Amino acid sequence: MFTWACPQELRIAAMQALEKLDPECVQSFWSKGGINQEDLMLAPLEVPMPSECVRQRRHQRVRLQKPLRAISVNLKENCRPEIKTASLSGGLATISRHLAPGTPLQLRLQVGMRHMQATALMRDYRAQDMAFEIVDMDLVERSKYRRLLAGNLPQNQSLAESIEAHSETILTQ
């Protein structure tokens, strides 16, 4: 009854877009938006304007402190990837068997006693590691996934980002 009309992930994306368009306007919405600094840490990477190539990675990759276990639920022989490095749009996992690039996987990610569902496409294969791209995830589960990744950011990096954001706030005032 007394909740936000839009899911947290949509509000975060809107705040990140508004911050790029009008940083001063963000300051007025910051207190009443229900979004904290940790939610904004994993913003999309900047696109260099005079770029001559297509950048595949859209979000910052985070090395997880403990590998995240997942289970595929849509294959004849299900596999159990262990995700070592992840971003909001994909990651790198160790898989016990070879999967052809482009294979869709319905993944159930296990975080303690909680589970998150995601649909991923498998990408290139290197030794035992395989890259994957998340192509579908419920917004509520994506919000949980964002918190998991933000919690795995190195402490000095998150501290440096919050100091930088705070100094920008002081400069604009």
Number of contiguous helices: 5
* Order of SSEs: HHHEEEEEEHH
What's the number of structural domains? 2
Strand line-up across the major sheet: 1-2-3-6-5-4
What is the assigned CATH homologous superfamily of the largest domain?
predicted glycosyltransferase like domains
Q: What is the highest CATH level, the class of the largest domain?
A: Mainly Beta
Which percent range describes the beta-strand content?
Answer: 25-35%
What is the C-alpha radius of gyration, as a whole number of Å?
18 Å
Question: Considering DSSP H and I runs of 4 or more, what fraction of the residues is helical?
Answer: 25-40%
Mean pLDDT: 76
Judged by helices, strands and strand pairing, the structural class is: alpha+beta
Tell me the major beta sheet: 6 strands, antiparallel, barrel
Describe this structure in words.
- This protein has 173 residues and is an alpha+beta fold.
- It has 2 domains: 1-41, no CATH class; 62-151, Beta Barrel (Thrombin, subunit H), CATH 2.40.10.220.
- It is 33% helix and 29% strand.
- The protein contains 5 helices and 6 strands, in the order αααββββββαα.
- The chain has a 6-stranded antiparallel beta barrel.
- Helix 1 (8-21) packs antiparallel against helix 2 (23-30).
- The termini are far apart.
- The relative contact order is 0.15.
